[in-house]
Specification:
Helices cover about 70% and strands about 0% of the residues. By secondary structure, the protein is an all-alpha fold.
Length: about 250
C-alpha cells in the first residue's frame, strides 16, 4: 500500500502542465502529418511520437481533425513569423533580390524546422482537398504581391529588368513553388535529394534562377547580391532588429 502511494506521488510530480503537454502533442502531430498527410497519419502514431498514450491524446484533442486544426493554426503563426523575419521588399532592385534570397534560404534553414515541416503539410494538402493550401496561398499573396509589384516596377524603371512584364501574382507564386519544392526535396533521406551539390550551392542556383526568371539582368543580380550581404536592413527600408524565431512553441 505504501509503495503504491509512493508511486502515485511520483506520477503526480512528473505530470506535465496541460499547456506544455498540448504543445508537445501539436509538435509531434505536425511531424507525423508532414510525413504521412492527414489520411495517413494515425492517432496511435502521433501518440507514440509524443511519448504518451492514445487515451491521453484524446483527453487534449477530441479527434484527429481537431488536432490537425491545431497544427494548422500553429503553422499559420509560423508563416507570419517567417514572413516577418524576411520582410517585404521596398521599391528597389536590391530589396527585391534580398527578399527572394531570404525566402529561398529560409526554406532550407535547419533552424526553421516547423516552417519546413509546414511546407510538407502544404504539399499533402494540395494532394488532398486543398483547403489548407488555399488558405496559405491567399494569406501569402495578400502579404507579398503589392510590395513585390512595386519592387518589380522600380527595377524595370531603372533598367534592371528586361523583357516582358510578368504578373506580380504569378511571380510570387512561382518563387514560392521553387522554394517549397527545394525545401521538401532536401528533407528526403540522405542521398535521395535530386541535387548534385550541397544546399548552399542549390540555393545560390535557385536565387539566380528566380532572379533571371523575373527578368533581372546579370549585372543587376551580381551587383545586388554583393551589396545585400552586409546591408539587408537598409535595403529593406526598415531598421535593423533581432530576428524573431519561427519555431517557438505554440
Amino acid at each position: 500500500m505504501t509503495q503504491r502511494n509512493a508511486s502515485d506521488r511520483l506520477k503526480v510530480r512528473k505530470r506535465i502542465p496541460a499547456a506544455e503537454r498540448r504543445g508537445s502533442l501539436i509538435r509531434a502531430a505536425r511531424k507525423v502529418f508532414a510525413e504521412r498527410g492527414f489520411d495517413g497519419a494515425k492517432t496511435s502514431a502521433i501518440a507514440e511520437a509524443a511519448g504518451v498514450s492514445e487515451a491521453l491524446l484524446y483527453r487534449h484533442f477530441p479527434s484527429k481533425r481537431a488536432l490537425y486544426g491545431a497544427v494548422l493554426r500553429q503553422l499559420i503563426q509560423t508563416q507570419n513569423a517567417v514572413y516577418d523575419a524576411i520582410g517585404s521588399p521596398a521599391p528597389s532592385t536590391e530589396s527585391l533580390v534580398v527578399v527572394v534570397s531570404g525566402y529561398l534560404r529560409a526554406c532550407v534553414d535547419p533552424e526553421q524546422s516547423s516552417w519546413r515541416e509546414g511546407l510538407k503539410v502544404l504539399l499533402s494538402s494540395l494532394a488532398g482537398d486543398g483547403t489548407y493550401a488555399g488558405t496559405v496561398y491567399r494569406r501569402a499573396t495578400g502579404l507579398t504581391v503589392e510590395p513585390l509589384a512595386a519592387a518589380l516596377s522600380a527595377a524595370r524603371a531603372c533598367g534592371d529588368i528586361e523583357g516582358p512584364a510578368l504578373s506580380p501574382l504569378h511571380t510570387a507564386m512561382f518563387i514560392e513553388h521553387v522554394g517549397t519544392m527545394i525545401s521538401v526535396a532536401s528533407q528526403l533521406p540522405h542521398g535521395s535529394a535530386p541535387y548534385e551539390a550541397d544546399l548552399v550551392r542549390v540555393v545560390d542556383d535557385a536565387i539566380w534562377f528566380c532572379c533571371r526568371g523575373v527578368g533581372l539582368n546579370i549585372a543587376a543580380i551580381t551587383r545586388c547580391l554583393a551589396a545585400v550581404r552586409n546591408d539587408v536592413p537598409r535595403i529593406l527600408g526598415r531598421p535593423a532588429r533581432k530576428r524573431r524565431s519561427a519555431t517557438a512553441n505554440p
